[in-house]
Amino acid sequence: MLDRIGKALAVVLLALAFPSGALANDDPHILVLGRISDNPQAHYEQLKPLLDYVVPRMRDVGITEGRILMARDARQMASYLRRGRVDWVTETAGTAVQLQRQARAQPLLITERDGVSHYHTVFFARRDSSIGSLPDLRGHSIAFQNAASTSAYFVPAAELLQRGLPMEILLSPMDRPAAGSVGYLFARSELNIATWVDKRLVDAGVMSNLDWDNPLRMPPAYRRDMKVIHKTADYPRALEMVRGDLDARVRERLQQVLAEAASDPDAREPLLRFFKTTRFLTIDEQGRQALESLGEGVARVGKEIE
User: In whole angstroms, what is the distance from residue 231 CA to residue 165 CA?
Assistant: First the structure.
């Protein structure tokens, strides 16, 4: 068993090391699950149990084997999808809509994690600050998490752009934006965002409402001195995506197996390992509208900022 795991991990690591053309999935009997990762070994251990659960339940559509392929970033994953190297991808909503636009990936299901299927972004500032709304951010600085974060970059940046607030990246917390712009920096973690605002290194910060309510991300000693200045609309927490040209029978059976997994006791442990997933939900009209809005925002961020 250890030998098999070792070989599988070697394939994952090779996928990170070689270009997208190096590992092709030309066998229609193999289902390839993809993930963007900076820690392939940890993610492999989270992905493999659910893949092992799914594959035996898809024999009636010709699937007899499952594999995992990881990418360094969204650009590489988009290439995998376009070239048919990956069939199924699990990602946060911001990255998912990027893959939809760049590689014609199709949303399959919304992923509920820890009982939460949707969340929103919270903008905050110090309670003693003069900033009380988004327009007040002109001439001030804001901390995002990183350039791949849905809740702490894509969504808040799109919200600012939609309200006509131009943005410029700052060299450091000591740098200041032009009077009519919002300056931004990447703090790398939610705790750093909270700390930077508390210590007045930046004027405002953003994080998801889940992180806002998490004392490990927003310590109570910080939160009591903070105020919420804006909340965005809700959007899906995570999505399961499939490549656009995946065989319809395979796509429909995968959707069925995942949607029914929450009611199967045998799936309890694989779902828990799969980023603490509690269930997969069909995408209703409200969900489609949220994804469309999110996709437009992500595209605007890419065009006007990056």
Answer: 16
Q: Is 70 exposed, middle or buried (0-12, 13-18, 19+ CB in 10 A)?
A: buried
Query: What confidence tens digit (pLDDT) does each residue in 35-63 have?
Result: 999 999 999 999 999 999 999 999 999 99
277 closest CA partner among 234, 229, 238? 238
**What burial class does residue 255 get, using C-beta atoms within 10 Å of its C-beta: 0-12 exposed, 13-18 middle, 19+ buried?**
middle
Residue 12 has pLDDT above 80, yes or no: no
Topology agreement, domain 2-116+236-304 and domain 121-232: yes
Residue ranges per structural domain of the chain: 2-116+236-304, 121-232
* CATH number for the segment(s) 121-232: 3.40.190.10
Q: Which of 187, 198, 105 is nearest to 152 (CA)?
A: 187
Nearest to 283 by CA among 106, 162, 66, 134: 106
**Cα distance between residue 165 and residue 204, in whole Å:** 15
CB atoms closer than 10 angstroms to residue 175: 12
| pTM of the full structure | 0.89
Matching CATH number, 2-116+236-304, of 3.30.70.360, 3.40.190.10, 3.20.20.140, 3.30.200.20? 3.40.190.10
Q: 291 near 109, Cβ under 8 Å?
A: no
Please, what is the average pLDDT of the chain? 93
Predicted local distance difference test score (pLDDT) of residue 14: 43
